[in-house]
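Exercise 7.
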Amino acid sequence: MMTAVFSTIPAATWWAVAASAALVTAGTAARATVATRGSTAVPAALWAIAACLSFALDTGLRASGVVSQPAAAASLRLVTAALSLCPAMSLLGAKRPQHGVWQLIVAALAVILLLPALATALVRPDSVPDAHLLGRGFIVVLSLVGWMNFVATRHGPTATLVTLAQVIVVRGFLPLVDSEQAFPPTGSTTAPLAASIDCLGGCLAAAGGLLAVIMGRRARPPRAPEGSFAAAVEPAFCAFRETLGAAWTLRVAERFDAIAASRGWPCRLHFDGIHPAASPIDGPWQRDAQRALGALLLRFVSTGWLGRHRWPATAGGRLARDAERG
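Solution. The predicted structure, written as tokens, is:
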């Protein structure tokens, strides 16, 4: 019954819409690359662009009829699946100075996930790649890691939409799923249903990307009183949280709190900002705390990035030197 309903619209149409949605998502990822410039999140945005373009190529070739058989379709989708995991993996190693070399590890991960497709192409070129159970499980785990990193941030709805889209798009390589049935021949009666599911995944990803753009344009109301230490540093800290996610934000907060405890500063850094923050900003401990937090943030962002996010200029020239000393 469901197949009959979806067969009224040709599979090529569904795949064409999915390809268009993937290009929209790639555009929002490109905007994220510009918005995150000066931070170590840029490589993750570039990986996201690559994944979107891969899915656009995948569905575009399916829509045009160039790729019509399950073996080729599954191999192309495995490329998309591997690239879709790279943004989350990239953020896990976003701390300077190893963030550049870490991208080689991310690329190696993608190649490892592609090994079933490469092996199948050499040994059984007309067969659907048989992904190992460990690889299938890793796809699920890393998808959840990427979602958990942002679900508690302002981009939580975006992360949820994108993760749902990711699971739908790579469904053929999830645990306990028959990969061959997920990639029917273009001329089969089940092709329109499979194509409509791909279209759903592409549209969810595009909706998530557009939502991220909208949320990025909305100004966050100040939480702390004007003139307080929290009001001075929280805009940049909150922007850092939205850019790098929960994992590194909590790590920075942990390191700052350790310094604050050792030096007797009357403040602690939580996920949502400074607690408490009632002291005037021009006190002696506030300047030291600002330099310490700035040095921690400079492990992930540049001084230009801090300046764009309203970081106070009082610690200015010492921030880079503090970061170099670690």
